[in-house]
Amino acid sequence: MSEEKNKQQIIYEAAARLFRDKGYRATSMRDLAKAVDLKASSLYNHIKSKEELLKAICFENAKKFLLGMDQIEKLTGSAREKVEALIALHIRIATEDITSVTAFNDEWRHLSGSALEEFLKLRRSYEKRFEDIIKQGIANGEFVTIDSSILLFTIFSSVRWVYDWYKPGRKITAEDLIAHITAVLLDGIRTTQ
Amino acid sequence: MSEEKNKQQIIYEAAARLFRDKGYRATSMRDLAKAVDLKASSLYNHIKSKEELLKAICFENAKKFLLGMDQIEKLTGSAREKVEALIALHIRIATEDITSVTAFNDEWRHLSGSALEEFLKLRRSYEKRFEDIIKQGIANGEFVTIDSSILLFTIFSSVRWVYDWYKPGRKITAEDLIAHITAVLLDGIRTTQ
DNA sequence: CCTACCGATCGGTAGG
DNA sequence: CCTACCGATCGGTAGG
Questions:
Q1: pTM of the predicted structure, to 2 decimals
Q2: Over the stretch A86-118, which tens digit does the pLDDT of each residue have?
């Protein structure tokens, strides 16, 4: 029973790694089977289908972001503090399970039909909630008056490269990254002279 | 002859669009044939192989970035002016042929063996030259003293989302994007009070 | 530029 | 958990 659970967990983790490294379409069930020391057909004693693996990866990560957003919206601080918390959220999720979050980020588009629709709905809702916080900060005078979707996507991408770059071997810690990326986003790379 | 040239061009453009929309591995030669109104076998009168299409897309775009870098390194201005020119370069390349540059960005990893090696060599060289300019700016006192690779990847990603977002229908022009993203990267989103 | 077809590989099932 | 196998689809070629 606990062994069963374990094997399924192992398959999910191997799938995330393969999807990240080779991409969903380029990963075959034979590749996955080999990675967990099984024959391809035996995988189906533990999982339902290839797409189920991708769904789990995508929706688990989406949930992490949405739960984080729930918490941050409840904060009583300024828009700046909320954006700082969101930057930290993204970087913490990324560095805690870099494999899974990278697969989520790059491979969600291979979800099919209704799963894809549902995923995009969650994503749009997350983006809207993030953008609302930015808009509040602009209205407040906390942030510069630049188109809020430009600010949104600049912040998004500034934390996104961490997925491709962060490796346990790096000397820079997650908390260093949070501090430095936050500093760049808030005040820019130019020195104030 | 010029018709022959045209058909090849049409195939390359259709391939870039399909690779961008579905991914390289999920795009079949039957898909591509349908998009250009041919049978799959007839494609091979115009092209050598599927991978040749990906190679062309990847190396053409790599060349655009490297030629831009050549020009910018020759400038006599400050590091800040060079970084501004690089930001503008990225956004101009992205908005001029958004389809091709997105395929280049997302699908290069499906290059095989020696093509992949060569591509990575070009990419590393580009990144190094970019980072050298940043290092110069830090040494100069023009830029804040934050780890240069953090600055490099933050700048890279801040212009990267444009690929996924920019559509001819948008009200914001490429030149607006350049101005706003440059402003955010140089001085941040926080107002100076 | 097409029809016809190749061997390889795909995700997945049957049956034990 | 395996062997054996399914129909579908893949990139690409032969031959006209």
A1: 0.93
A2: 999 999 999 999 999 999 999 999 999 999 999
Say if residue A14's pLDDT is above 60.
Answer: yes
In this complex, the residue with its CA at the shortest distance from the C1' of nucleotide C5 is B41
Structure tokens at B49: 């192989």
Among B6, B176, B151, B192, smallest CA distance to B91 is for: B176
Closest nt to residue B44, judged CA to C1':
D12
For an interface test with B, give the residue of A78, A154, A170 to mutate (most B CBs within 10 A). A154
Alpha-helical runs (H) found in chain A: 2-22, 29-35, 50-74, 79-96, 98-107, 113-140, 148-165, 174-187
The reported pLDDT for the residue numbered B163 is 83
Q: Is the pLDDT of residue B122 over 80?
A: yes
Residue nearest to nucleotide D10 (CA to C1'): B28
pLDDT (0 to 100) of residue A38 = 97
A165: left (phi over 0), alpha (psi -120 to 50) or beta: alpha
C-beta of residue A75 within 8 angstroms of C-beta of residue A82: yes
Interchain pair A190, B80: CB under 8 A? yes
Read off the pLDDT of residues A48-76 as tens digits, 9 standing for 90 and up. 999 999 999 999 999 999 999 999 999 99
A143 strand-pairing partners: B190
Counted residue by residue, chain A has a size of 193
Report DSSP state, residue A192: P
Find, in chain B, the residue whose alpha carbon is nearest to that of A162: B153
Q: Which of residues 32-71 of B touch strand C (CB under 7 A)?
A: 38-42, 45-46
- Residue B6 CB closer than 7 angstroms to strand C? no
Residue among B12, B91, B119, B28 nearest A154 (CA) = B91
pLDDT band (50, 70, 90) for residue A141: very high
Q: What is the CA radius of gyration of chain A?
A: 19
